[in-house]
Amino acid sequence: MSLCSVSSPVLIAFLFTSSWIASGATAFINSSFLSHRYLTVDYYDKTCPNLEHIVSFVASQKLKESPATASATIRLFFHDCFVEGCDGSILISSKPGSKELAEKDAQDNKEIPVEAYDIIEKAKAMVESKCPGVVSCADILALAARDFIHLLGGPYYPVKKGRWDGQTSMASLVYSNIPHANSTIDDMLKLFSSKGLTLNDLVVLSGAHSIGFAHCKNFVNRLYNFEGTNKPDPDMDPRLLKSLRRSCPQYGGNVGVVTPFDATTPFAFDNAYYQNLQRKLGLLASDKALFLDPRTRPLVQALAKDKNKFFQEFSLVMDKLGNVGVKRGKKHGEIRRVCTMHQ
Questions:
Q1: What is the CA angle 17-313-151, rounded to 5?
Q2: Residue 96, CB half-sphere, CA atoms under 13 Å: how many?
């Protein structure tokens, strides 16, 4: 799974001055703001003029073979940007015998389908054949995420480029830097703020759940034993509850089973996700919280009413997300020729 025409200036001021923003997070934000000015839409116009056509072609071909690749790649982009910034570090493979696993092998990333990594490798190989040693894996990932969003009916937005690839990848950094299925609104606001993102960004980026799937283990507690009551979550539509129980039995038999975030239009990138939240059709506890919390409910309602507004907001927020923790120069990054290997 960042911008903000709807966010309250007072709230934003609170988020960025609250005592729970650590000095390390502040430095991360400042670094992102300093780096993003180097990103431009035409960054590769002279050095790799066919870059966008190559990535788009590979994405469209992969979508025909494996539709699930789209949501997986978008999730891959979110997880990359939230851990050490948008630097392609999630693509690096763990070194055999190393005590520290790479990001992709963290427990929270193991559910990302391998197709997402494969599409970036395929696109990178084709780009390298035309423009060797020029384009970063981080930029290819940002482009692929945009292309899949558009291929599924979502907005087409310009992607600024010029990111360098990160030189480190640590699984130990993942858990504390990404949202979880049971995250509260306060949890998510704190996390998003540490990346320079706002309440509005949180709600808009959550709209990526318009597509994609979640494993049973991420919501099974809502079906049978919500908050230790031995009863289902009352904030779930009974018809959805019945359907999910068929797929996800309480004890065993659901390993590897997935169900769509969006129960109505699971393969279309649209604003039905927000409409579903109003009808108690949110899948994760973190999804339903967006409608129940008075701080985020008005934004959910506004985006549910107007798909064009959602598309406009989402395009802006994706641009803002793509600026998080950008790295530039040999001191901080590299241009990897193979995305899985640090040079």
A1: 135
A2: 0
Angle at 165 between CA 189 and CA 128, to 5 degrees: 135
What does the CA dihedral 175, 181, 182, 184 come to, rounded to 10 degrees? 80
**Digit-coded pLDDT (tens) for 161-201:** 999 999 999 999 999 999 999 999 999 999 999 999 999 99
CA 28 to the chain's CA centroid: 18
Write the DSSP assignment of 77-94 as a string of letters: HHHHHHTTSSSSGGGPPP
Catalytic residue among 79, 215, 332, 342: 79
Query: b/e map of 199-209 (b: 16 or more CB within 10 Å)?
Result: bbbbbbbbbbb
> For residue range 278-294, what is the model confidence (pLDDT) as tens digits?
999 999 999 999 999 99
Q: Tell me phi and psi for residue 165, to 5 degrees.
A: -80, 140
User: Do residues 194 and 22 touch, judged by C-beta distance below 8 A?
Assistant: yes
Specify whether 79 is catalytic. Answer: yes
> What's the pTM?
0.88
Q: How far apart are CA 310 and CA 315, in angstroms?
A: 8
Structure tokens, 142:
């940002």
Query: Which H or E run includes 51?
Result: helix 51-65
Helix, strand or coil for residue 120?
A: helix
What domains are defined for the chain? 22-178 (1.10.520.10), 204-318 (1.10.420.10)
Question: Can you list the alpha helix ranges (DSSP code H) found in 131-269?
Answer: 137-151, 185-194, 199-206, 220-224, 238-247
